[in-house]
Amino acid sequence: MSKIIWLFVCVISLHFAISLPTAETQSALKDSSSTEHNALAPAKGKDAPKPLTLEEQNLITRERKRLSAMIIEGDKKHQQFLLKASNKIAKNILADPAISRIGTTEGKQERAVLEAYVQDSDDILNATADKCIKVLKDFFTFTNRHYSIKYNPMYADDIWYKALKTHGMDQLESEEAKILNEIGCQYADEFEKYLKSLSPAGLEKEKDLVYVQETFLENKDVLDKANYGYRYVSFFKEQQAED
Predict the structure, then answer these.
(1) Both 182 and 163 in a single domain?
(2) Distance between CA 9 and CA 5 in Å, rounded?
(3) What is the pLDDT of residues 109-132, one digit of tens each?
(4) What pTM was estimated for this model as a whole?
(5) Considering only Cβ atoms within 10 Å of each terminal Cβ, which end of the chain, N or C, has fewer?
């Protein structure tokens, strides 16, 4: 099972291609004298930004609500894809004659897991995020028991591994990666647009998001656009939790 899927169903922050910088790295990045950094922050020795106007404060409030709604929609798009694709895989596996013939106690128990998943996922295709995550966790816990062994050929005779591979697990992982990339790139574009609309005072208020932008400019070779978008979301959610 892909690292992307497992981290998702464990309900932790969306995974990044590289870890968040350490305090030392963050300090070094913030002290950078690069052209990109200087374009984003007021030059040393200049007057501090003027206070936010009421108009810009209202703009920031509206934009943050818009960005929050965008993130919710992105999560929903991802979850709905996983629910529908995994539901189809589970149904196809249960209809597989090789699976139907399983007579061992362990085999019957695993089949019962998929049967319960099909029922649960049928019931919540348009449910809230919390319900989606709970049900998806059941399916991907099952796949983690069997499909992660694709990286260990000596166990590749597992009937559940063969069933998952035959009925589309590789395709699910490939399509999920594409969807996550699309969503991440959208996040990057929209946060970039938001930051460009702000005055120096607004940028100071959103200094955590500005830091993400600086980090991307400093690390283009190791941080692609989609991951850059998810880093924005991580910092953005941390701000919301503190507000």
Answers:
(1) no
(2) 6
(3) 999 999 999 999 999 887 767 788
(4) 0.76
(5) C
Q: Examine residue 59 and state whether it is found in any structural domain, yes or no.
A: no
CA distances from 112 to 92, 106, 158, 224 (A): 14, 10, 17, 41
Is the sign of the CA dihedral 179, 183, 185, 186 positive or negative?
positive
Final residue of a structural domain among 167, 197, 229: 167
C-alpha dihedral, 49 to 51 to 57 to 63, nearest 10°: 10
Residue type, 223: L
> 14-21: long-range contacts (C-beta < 8 A, 24 or more apart)?
14/180, 14/230, 14/233, 14/234, 15/230, 16/227, 16/230, 16/231, 16/234, 17/222, 17/223, 17/224, 17/227, 18/219, 18/222, 18/223, 18/227, 20/231, 20/234, 21/215
Residue in 124, 108, 114 with CA at minimum distance from that of residue 90: 114
Judge if 161 and 222 occupy the same domain.
no
Taking phi first (over 0 means left), then psi (-120 to 50 degrees means alpha), and beta for anything else, what does residue 16 get?
beta
Please count the helices (runs of H) and the strands (runs of E) in the chain.
Answer: 12, 0
Rounded to an integer, what distance in angstroms lies between the CA atom of residue 119 and that of residue 231? 35
Tell me the two tokens of residue 89.
């895989």
Decide: 121 and 83 in contact? Cβ < 8 Å.
Answer: yes
In a domain, 115, yes or no: yes
By the 8 A CB rule, do 14 and 234 touch?
yes
Residues in the chain, overall count: 243
How confident is residue 27, by pLDDT bands cut at 50, 70 and 90? Answer: very low
